[in-house]
Amino acid sequence: MRREDIGPLLGQVSDDLPEVHLADRAWTTGVILKRRRRRTTVVGVLVALGIALVVAVAFAAGWLPVSG
């Protein structure tokens, strides 16, 4: 196969491929990003609450000195 034959052959093959709907793609990407941000926020809040709980237990048990 010669190099000149590749272009028309690729054109024929690409005509058979379905068109990508950019609006649908953008919507899907937006939904994925929104879920990821929500998940990250929830994980961050849970980690902060866990740390606060550990510190509170440490103060209550007398492991950390209360200065002041």
TrEMBL record:
This is Uncharacterized protein. The chain crosses the membrane at residues 42-64. The keyword Transmembrane applies. It comes from Kribbella antibiotica. Keywords: Membrane, Transmembrane, Transmembrane helix.
